[in-house]
Write a sequence for this structure.
């Protein structure tokens, strides 16, 4: 099938033109972010300055909540069990926790007898600089539909209205029985517009709180900023208006209920793992040798995005403390993100750039277990109070004990003293004490790791999550 490079080019040009109209600094920021990772890292200071000075993308001046107008359409006869997932990005062009979750969930739904389809946000992936404008791709047997006009309109309100129009054509072709929108609010607002036209129930899946992520990453901007308030109101609007809400953990459910959503309409469908993660780990000897890790050295590490709320600095500081105590420890830091340059600088300042702190960058999903095989302990020092991440569940499935910050999001996963240990956030000395204790007791590591693996095998498989979504659809009369 043709990649349609001309259409991909016109979409990319329309995005650049829209950014230029919004703020002349934004095209420069976009250009830096599209550069290869090594080049982008070298220009990190420029990116920080551009981020601080550029106006935030997004319509902070639009009325809130902003209802996307219902597109024109004709009546349809829904196909029982057919699900249309509305998402922002997708594999293979964006590998992140949310895209991996979409793919794993839809494959599990297919195995459970449902008929899932995925549609990405208007313009993806061509608008992100990927010159591929095919309207349909098959990934793991699941159809991935793309909404690719010749030109994107200007302004988020116009973009979402056009998104709804193109999605309406897809709805009339596919005739789904339920619309399953994954946050952010743009997907939820489009799904609600389609419900108005076709009468289809809407399930809104809250995988995070985008306004909180924006607040953490927007340099010099706080929760009092208008953009934060508008995004929060949009998210709350989607939660309240949807027929059912799914989310990842009990802490997130409590937050959603606190925003006025009836508790009986909110269901927890946690992160789950591929069955491969429950199999015995591969031999880590070759990876240890390649990384220069000696057989007598202990390894603590993490797999994550390097953002502020992941608090990787706490792990670096605890590693430096352990080195001062004479503990032979290495830190394996797998991932990338906006904080990487600052973290590498901190590692140097703490005396860890002698190979003690190993920054690998991102690794393909199929290599994550090779990293697990090197670790003695998996660390989650994050400060995010509400959002439960996927990576510790994968590590627990591999039989690793988890040391994590004692925040509500992690209490769904880690039972302190049973399958890991919870520590006050940003307490590097307590982290060092706990890690030293674990390194000195192989029996404790094995006992906690076995309990961690048993928990995941019992409660966090994709088959179980797919069954939970099926039950939700059934309650809405979609099967």
């Amino acid at each position: 099938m043709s990649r349609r490079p001309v259409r991909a080019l016109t979409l990319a040009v329309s995005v650049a033109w829209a950014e230029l109209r919004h703020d002349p600094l934004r095209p420069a920021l976009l250009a830096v972010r599209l550069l290869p990772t090594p080049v982008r890292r070298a220009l990190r200071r420029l990116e920080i300055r551009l981020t601080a000075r550029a106006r935030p993308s997004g319509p902070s001046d639009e009325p809130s909540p902003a209802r996307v107008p219902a597109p024109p359409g004709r009546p349809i006869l829904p196909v029982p069990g057919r699900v249309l997932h509305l998402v922002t990005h997708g594999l293979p062009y964006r590998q992140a926790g949310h895209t991996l979750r979409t793919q794993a969930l839809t494959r599990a739904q297919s195995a459970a007898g449902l008929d899932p389809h995925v549609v990405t946000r208007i313009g993806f992936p061509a608008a992100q600089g990927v010159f591929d404008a095919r309207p349909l791709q098959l990934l793991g047997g699941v159809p991935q539909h793309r909404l690719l006009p010749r030109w994107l309109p200007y302004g988020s309100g116009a973009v979402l209205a056009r998104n709804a129009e193109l999605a309406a054509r897809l709805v009339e072709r596919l005739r789904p029985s339920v619309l399953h929108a994954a946050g952010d609010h743009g997907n939820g607002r489009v799904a609600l517009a389609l419900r108005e036209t076709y009468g289809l129930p809407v399930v809104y899946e809250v995988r995070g709180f985008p306004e909180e992520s924006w607040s953490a990453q927007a340099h010099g901007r706080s929760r009092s900023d208008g953009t934060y308030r508008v995004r929060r109101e949009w998210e709350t609007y989607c939660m309240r208006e949807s027929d059912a809400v799914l989310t990842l953990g009990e802490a997130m459910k409590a937050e959603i209920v606190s925003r006025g959503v009836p508790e009986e309409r909110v269901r927890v469908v946690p992160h789950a793992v591929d069955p491969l993660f429950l199999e015995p780990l591969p031999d880590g000897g070759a990876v240890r040798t390649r990384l220069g890790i000696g057989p007598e050295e202990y390894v603590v590490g993490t797999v994550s995005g390097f953002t502020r709320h992941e608090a990787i600095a706490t792990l670096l500081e605890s590693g430096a403390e352990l080195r001062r105590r004479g503990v032979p420890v290495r830190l394996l830091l797998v991932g990338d993100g906006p904080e990487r340059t600052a973290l590498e600088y901190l590692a140097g300042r703490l005396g860890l750039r002698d190979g003690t702190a190993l920054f690998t960058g991102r690794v393909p999903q199929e290599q994550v277990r090779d990293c697990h095989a090197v670790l003695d302990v998996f660390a989650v020092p994050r400060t995010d109070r509400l959002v439960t991440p996927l990576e510790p569940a994968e590590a627990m499935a591999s039989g690793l004990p988890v040391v994590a910050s004692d925040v509500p999001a992690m209490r769904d996963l880690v039972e302190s003293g049973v399958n890991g240990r919870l520590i006050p956030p940003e307490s590097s000395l307590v982290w060092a004490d706990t890690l030293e204790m674990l390194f000195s007791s192989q029996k404790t590591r094995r006992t906690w790791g076995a309990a961690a693996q048993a928990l995941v095998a019992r409660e966090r498989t994709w088959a179980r999550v797919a069954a939970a979504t099926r039950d939700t659809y059934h309650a809405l009369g979609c099967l």
